[in-house]
Amino acid sequence: MSAEGRLIAGRYRLETQIGSGAMGVVWRAVDERLHRTVAVKQLLLQPGYTPEETEEARQRSMREGRIAARLQHQNAIVVFDVAEDEGQPVLVMEYLPSQSLATVISEQGVLPPQQVARIGAQVAGALAAAHMAGIVHRDLKPGNILLGDNGMAKITDFGISRAIGDVSVTKSGILAGTPAYLAPEVALGRDPAPASDVFSLGSTLYAAIEGEPPFGVDENAISLLHRVARGQVEPPRQAGPMTAALMQLLRPDPVDRPTMAQARGLLQAVADGRPVAAPAPTKWAPPPTTVGRPEQAPANPPTQVGAVAPASAAPERKPRQALLWAMAIMIAVLVGILVASFVSSGEPGNQGQPQPSGPAPAPAPASTAPATTTAASTTATSTSTTAPTSSTAKQPSKSDIEGVVKDYYSLVPNNLDRAWSMLGPSLQAQGKDSYERFWKRIDKVDIVFGPQFTGGDKVVAVLRFTTKDGSTSTERHVLGMVMNASGQPLINTDQLQGR
User: Fold this and answer.
1) Residue 139 known to be catalytic
2) Low-confidence spans in the chain with pLDDT less than 50
3) Per-residue burial over 433-460, b = 16 or more CB atoms within 10 Å of its CB, e = otherwise
4) Where are the membrane-spanning stretches (predicted)?
């Protein structure tokens, strides 16, 4: 389409170009048959396309029309017709005098939380209807939300959406969607699902309040995808009453997110001034992948501090359970010693003599020594060398435990051998090779807050990680501590939480 006034499909007269993108050009036009204003979008082919690629692009545009035509909702742009112009498909859509949310943010800056909640509730309503129709949008972002002059918000551009049961025409290996607004599971290479749209809606509304999406912006798409895949969202600073709703939409594990219908209810509650409960803490342990392409999990998946041991690893006991088991064993040992002492005290010539500390003597023949006496003596002698260590080990103080955590983070990433020795069995079970591969990507770690011992076996620390490429992320870690046989605290588990 090179000039205004051109007639398309014998009825649509072009007036003014109102938008353009990677996939097409949009014009305001007049339907001369029905005498109404419409928007006309024509496919924009990139130079150098092969005939096969051209045909694929045509199919994609036709599919967009079919998918969008299924959805009839007041907050979704309606597709009226799919026509052709010089052999190329064009979409004829509802025209809404509007600006995109991206334009509004760019020109006006961030928006008030309750206004964003009203926009989000409208968009969530349309997307809930889309999900009911078997449609996943897959590219939700500020540029695809139109804000009308009357306060109406509408979702548009289902150009890369997927309808369940529709043939896929996206090229293999191409990651669909805008990286900054993708859900973590999509960045890891999984197929988009309704829960992915929920996360993208949360990212879009986050950007409207904070000025940028939760994982920031980066010209290096690969670096940005790595941050998205980690799923570590920095809680918003300006969201006020929207904070709890946003953090529910932005839960890293798709299973934990609300449905789109539930998201609409949360956002409408904020818009109406009603309180929204904060989400419960959750852990996100993404499977080992290369960003954008799933791979078979290695034997020892990457040991990122905060990751959960894989199912194939040795069974993990919680630190509190481990301490209880250790105490039970100590009590059993002491009882064994007392029983052995009582038994031996009845034999002539043994009163007041210490029990031997060397290897247990060979048991007497069954005809001369009862089996129970032999078992008790063997237990006593075999444990006499370890019992004093366990029973006399000094309990570490609060400052001792916090000092271990400080020392650990002063060692990584430069002295990994020493740092590795300060980890408990649960984290070490994940493999040193994977542990080292993770830390080779990190340039330095700064302790922003803490470490603070909170009682039991927990230590809280807020850390700032700087990667080799210069990007930073701030994370809140809850460390589970356990003692070794000599009473030295070790970092045994690490739960990553939002700040």
Assistant:
1) yes
2) 1, 165, 167-175, 288-318, 339-392, 498-499
3) ebbbebbeeeeebeeeebbebeeebbbb
4) 322-343
**What's the CATH number for 98-164+177-271?**
1.10.510.10
Structure tokens at 162: 């997927």
pLDDT at 145: 94
pLDDT at 285: 55
Architecture field, domain 398-497: Roll (3.10)
Three-state secondary structure call for residue 156: coil
The residue annotated as part of the active site, out of 139, 197, 457, 494, is 139
Cα–Cα distance for residue pair 61/82, rounded to 1 Å? 9
Is residue 318 marked as binding? no
Q: Which helix (H) or strand (E) holds 405?
A: helix 398-411
Distance CA 94, CA 38 (A): 5
Residue ranges per structural domain of the chain: 7-94, 98-164+177-271, 398-497
Distance CA 384, CA 458 (A): 32
Q: What is the pLDDT of residues 197-238, one digit of tens each?
A: 999 999 999 999 999 988 877 667 677 777 778 777 888 999
Whether residue 469 contacts residue 441, with contact meaning beta carbons closer than 8 Å, is answered with no
Residue ranges of E strands in 58-174: 79-85, 88-94, 98-100, 135-136, 145-148, 153-155, 162-163
At a CB cut-off of 8 Å and minimum separation 6, what does 365 contact?
none
pTM of this structure:
0.55
pLDDT of residue 486: 80
Contact (Cβ atoms closer than 8 angstroms) between residue 124 and residue 263: yes
Class of domain 7-94: alpha beta
